[in-house]
Write a structure and sequence with these properties.
The protein has helices at about 20-25, 50-60, 80-100, 105-120, and strands at about 5-15, 30-35, 45-50, 70-75. It is an alpha+beta fold. The protein folds into 2 domains: about 5-75, Alpha-Beta Plaits, CATH 3.30.70.920; about 80-125. Helix 3 runs antiparallel to helix 4. The radius of gyration is 19 Å and the shape is elongated.
């Protein structure tokens, strides 16, 4: 099972464009729900995609360009699984850096973390419950 990243987007619409914005947003892959809310924002959209970069691209290259949108604010949901993946990536990045600086640093540790991260992403039984 590949873990998805969830985000909430608060959207402020220009006067009289809310219905058109809702229709425009529903056509994008990754948008699970769009609903009207009370002030100061007009809409909330829930997105689910496979990585933070995909969500960022969707927001900046698509959503913000929908006619009628005045402003957006994006909140990423970091559940236990997502936090662990970010921690693993940080650890892997820092270990990679240290192996270039200190040649005797155990290279097997990097391979172990790569295997752990792969298993974590692809094995449903491996994902801890929240």
């Amino acid at each position: 099972m590949l873990k998805t990243i969830k985000a909430y987007i608060l959207i402020e619409c220009n006067v009289g464009t809310t219905r058109d914005v809702i229709d425009g947003l529903k056509r994008f892959k990754g948008i699970k729900l769009v609903e009207a809310v009370t002030v100061p924002y007009d809409l909330v959209a829930i997105l689910e995609l496979s990585c933070l970069g995909e969500i960022g691209d969707l927001v900046t290259q698509n959503i913000q360009l929908v006619t009628g949108i005045a402003r957006t604010v994006t909140f990423f949901v970091f559940d236990q699984t997502t936090r662990l993946l970010i921690l693993l990536k940080s650890l892997l990045d820092s270990m990679t850096k240290w192996t270039t600086i200190i040649p005797f640093f155990p290279a097997f540790s990097i391979d172990f973390i790569k295997i752990l991260a792969f298993e974590y992403l692809h094995n449903e039984a491996f994902i801890p419950s929240s």
